[in-house]
Amino acid sequence: MKFLDFPYQRPDFEQATTELKTLVKQFEEAKNGQEQIEIIEKYFEISDEFSSNVTIASIRNAINTKDQFYETEMKFYDENNPILSSFIHKFQKVIVESPFKADLIAKFGKHYFNLIEVSLKTFDEKIIPLLIEENKLAREYDNLIAAAQIEFEGKIYNLSQMGPFLESIDRKTRHQAQLKMSEYFQANEEKLDQIYDSLVKTRHQMAQTLGFKNYIELGYYRMGRTEYDANDVANYREQIKKEVVPAVTKFNQRKAKRLKIEKLKSYDRISFLSGNPKPKGTKADLVNAAKLMYSEMSAETKEFFEYMLKHELFDLESKAGKRGGGFCTYIPKYEAPFIFANFNGTLGDVDVLTHEAGHAFQVYSSRNNYPSQRWPGMDAAEIHSMSMEFFAWPWMEAFFKEDSRKYYFTHLVGAISFLPYGATVDEFQHRVYENPELTPEARKEIWRSLEKIYSPEIDYDDDDFLKKGTYWYRQSHIFGAPFYYIDYTLAQVCAFQYWVKDRLDHEKAWKSYYHLSTLGGTQGFVGLLKEAGLDSPFEPGTIKKVLKPLLEYLDTIDDLNL
Ligand SMILES: [Zn+2]
Fold first, then answer.
1. Ion ligand 1: residues, CB < 5 A
2. Is the backbone of residue 289 left (phi > 0), alpha (psi -120 to 50) or beta?
3. Could you tell me the distance, in angstroms and rounded to a whole number, from the CA of residue 90 to the centre of ligand 1?
4. How far is the CA of 385 from the centre of ligand 1 (A)?
5. How much distance in Å is there from the Cα of 495 to the middle of ligand 1?
6. pLDDT the model gives residue 344
7. Pair 543, 245: CB distance under 8 Å
8. What is the pLDDT of residue 274?
9. Which terminus of the chain has fewer CB atoms gathered within 10 Å of its CB, N or C?
10. Burial class of 31 by CB neighbour count within 10 A (0 to 12, 13 to 18, 19+)
11. Predicted pLDDT at 260
12. Which is nearest to 95 in space by CA: 19, 23, 45?
């Protein structure tokens, strides 16, 4: 069956809550571990059925936000999910209090319990109205961004469709495109400030209601972090400041030379005077190239990608009314990953077929795990996607043709240069939630001051709006997924290790990667790294060690003549 034909039905919340209540009662009355295991498995079945429907609705809503039917469904979930959460919370509580805990741990693993314990700390019925408010505000932000209509050179574009202009080889065009985007955000500045201010205060109130000092610790628990805290992350950011920022400064000097520009400006978002590497061919060509690539990469990826194609588990083109960005999700009932993207003719399109496909491959490889263990935490999840981008290197010529050497250089430089930006987003949020009473203006000043630390060369030229410290408006994670962003950088540091391993020995590297993919979420980030034989980014010195071979490789490239 194709995704379009997957039947959708709004789950009966009353029935679900009644079933959950019954399960809790049965669980408490169970006489041994085996009985309790069966009840948990029954709960997993209900949860799979339920989440399949919610996921189908959310994908269809993201594909067409103008379709009132699924918009209504999503509103319904926003309002009702927190009520269901309270029942799940009750169930989790009896699970951790089980007298047969040893049997349950033997069956479901220690990490399953660690996650439940962390999740119990993040919920109390008292915060339900705040959770509902948070959902509503995050949706408001999403809709505001999706509705963006920017007039440029006589046509109307959404934010994602502006991408190619920002990468135009004509400096004037990309400069104007940046100013036009700023104009859009400036016109919505007050609204965005209001939404963010309300989100910060709502989350702070949640934290206080649950007995936390502020939102930071709660935010970490909500991200399911069981092995590291804000201190570890702060030390990790120091490694980025020390090792990565100077490397990126050197990249920028090389780029200025390539572009023959004295002083780079923020809108010089191209890597080469001849333009950034671009995928060659239509959407169908790219998908065909991906099909060939996955058939050659490994037996496992061949089977996976054929499954994706057979069931049409993609929505790739950018369209009016479609939500921005890209993501991968999973519909358990049909063992179906789904890839959502907004193709716009830039090299990001290829990333979708490698990065998002990496996520999809991982969840497909973990499909027989228990529901809560199919995905790793957000931090580890990005290892699979970012490493897949590197495993895909030997096939990039099929996508980029004559631009492939440029692609390799841009990909690696871009991935390294991303780390300081990721740290900026992360440190910004720590500063914001440490002090929820900051005014919107003070928040912007903090953003700007962090930019000066992590991206010392950034020069906004005549863009007074970005100079004020507003670049983060476009970073949806800051609104919808607090503290998530650093995960991309943590995973990137791990993915770099696969870049090195794959060049040394593909079979061995692939074996480790596939093993990691099947493990899914059976362990936390640090535990998974150990299983896969990767160095933890939290260990002092890891970034320096990981960066060394990458910088050496980049030094051998004559980028002035690509
Ligand atoms: Zn990802």
1. 382, 385
2. alpha
3. 32
4. 6
5. 12
6. 81
7. no
8. 87
9. N
10. exposed
11. 95
12. 23
Residue 86's pLDDT is what? 79
Give the distance (Å) from ligand 1 centre to CA of residue 351: 10
327 Cα to the center of ligand 1, angstroms: 7
Q: What is the pLDDT of residues 37-84, one digit of tens each?
A: 999 999 999 999 999 999 999 999 999 999 999 999 999 998 888 778
Q: Could you give the 3-state DSSP secondary structure of residue 38?
A: helix
Is 104 within 8 Å of 40 (Cβ atoms)? yes
Distance from residue 294's CA to the centre of ligand 1 (Å) = 18
Burial category of 439 from C-beta neighbours within 10 Å (exposed 0-12, middle 13-18, buried 19 and up): exposed
CA distances 416 to 57, 218, 324, 495, 550, Å, are 36, 29, 24, 11, 9
Cα 355 to ligand 1 centroid, rounded to whole Å: 6
Percent of the chain with pLDDT over 90: 89
- The CA 252 to ligand 1 mean position distance, Å, reads 26
H or E element at residue 182? helix 171-187
> If you measure from the C-alpha of residue 384 to the centroid of ligand 1, how many angstroms do you get, rounded to a whole number?
8
DSSP letter assigned to residue 2: -
The two structure tokens encoding residue 394: 């030997």
Looking at every residue in the chain, the average pLDDT score rounds to: 95
Distance 323 CA to ligand 1 centre (A): 16
Cα–Cα dist 338/331, whole Å: 8
- CA of 184 relative to ligand 1 center, distance in Å: 27
Q: What distance in angstroms lies between residue 387's CA and the mean position of ligand 1's atoms? A: 10
> Is 110 buried (19+), middle (13-18) or exposed (0-12) by CB count in 10 A?
middle
Distance 98 CA to ligand 1 centre (A): 36
pLDDT at 325: 83
Distant-in-sequence, close-in-space partners of 559: CB < 8 Å, separation ≥ 6: 254, 258, 409
Alpha-carbon distance of 362 to 373, in angstroms, equals 12
Residue stretches of the chain with pLDDT short of 70: none
Structure tokens at 308: 């994706």
CB 137 within 8 A of CB 199: yes
- Rounded to the nearest angstrom, the distance between the alpha carbon of 188 and the centre of ligand 1 is 28
